[in-house]
Amino acid sequence: MKRRSFLKGTLAGSAVTVAVGAGLLNPRSVLAAWPESAFSAKSIPDAMSGLFGTADNKTSGAIKIKAPDIAENGAVVPVTVSTSMSGVSAIAIIAEKNGQPLAANFELASNAKGTVSTRIKMGKTMDVIAVVKSGGKLHTTRKNVKVTIGGCGG
Amino acid sequence: MANSIRIRAKASGSDVTVKALITHPMETGLRKDKKTGNKIPAHYIQEVKCEHKGKTVVNAQWGPAVSKNPYLSFAFSGAKAGDTVKLSWVDNKGKSDSAEAKVK
User: Fold this and answer.
1) What are phi and psi of A16, to 5 degrees?
2) Could you say which DSSP state residue A63 is in?
3) Which residues neighbour A81 within 8 Å (Cβ) at sequence distance 6 or greater?
4) Which residues in chain B land under pLDDT 50?
5) A13 pLDDT higher than 70
6) Which residue spans within chain A are E strands per DSSP?
């Protein structure tokens, strides 16, 4: 008897999984649209305007990129971007010479701190560019990372 | 399915630091299968959202250039120990997952 109810429970559970997998519960509609044009862009200005609507930016000393000088493995490059600016609404991370340079964008609420960390893939030695949107303007800074083994092939 | 997200939130004063690890292949769509020579289809997380008390704190958009089994970390203010932080992701195949953590 116990075995029977166990089987039933498992079946019910898997039915929910199937429903999610088939998109019936459609989680996509809950979230905001993903900016496809920015991520498929092949140049940095295109990526910036796809993301923020403009590519105008100023180099700023108030942004810091923490990344290794030499990354042995380009598939996993830890990057931390922090800024002392106030009113930061977004931080984007761009890998200059990747086929599709834009790696990630973080939209920050007003109570979020101006610091994000993640790990990105880099095809070869290149600059990592951090873009900080603050007060409606774009500020950038860059840091060179030497990559010994590229992270985009396989 | 075991949960794909490991999340930790730690308070220091009124600031909370959130660290999360997600288990995900993050395929770029450019890699080739060594045996068949066919391209492995792209499969990567597109959006990651973190909520505190129903309000979005961080909403991230990711491309395929984010590493496999992604890690992310950020901080925000206005939370205290015992609050719940929720993290959720959606990938390009429409799959999703979410996890909650109590601020410590």
Assistant:
1) -65, -45
2) E
3) A63, A64, A65, A66, A91, A93, A115, A116, A117, A130, A132
4) 1
5) no
6) 57-59, 63-66, 70-73, 77-83, 88-95, 102-108, 112-120, 126-134, 137-149
Give chain B's domain count.
1
ipTM of the predicted structure? 0.84
* Mean pLDDT, range A90-114, rounded to an integer: 87
Instruction: Tell me which chain B residue has its CA closest to the CA of residue A35.
Output: B61
Residue with tokens 């044009």: A37
Beta bridge partners of B48: B60, B89
Mean pLDDT across A63-68: 88
Give the domain CATH number at B45: 2.60.40.10
Q: Chain B within 8 Å of A2 (Cβ-Cβ)?
A: no
On whether any CB of chain B is under 8 Å from the CB of A90, the answer is no
User: Which of B15, B64, B67 comes nearest A76 by C-beta?
Assistant: B67
Give chain A's radius of gyration (CA, Å): 20
**Nearest residue of chain A to residue B28 (CA atoms):** A152
- A57/A38 Cα distance (integer angstroms): 16
Q: Which domain holds residue B94?
A: 5-102
The proportion of chain B whose per-residue pLDDT surpasses 70, expressed as a percent, equals 98
The number of beta carbons lying within 10 Å of the beta carbon of residue B61 is: 24
Q: Is it the case that residue A30 has pLDDT exceeding 50?
A: no
The reported pTM is: 0.77
CA A15 to chain centre: 33
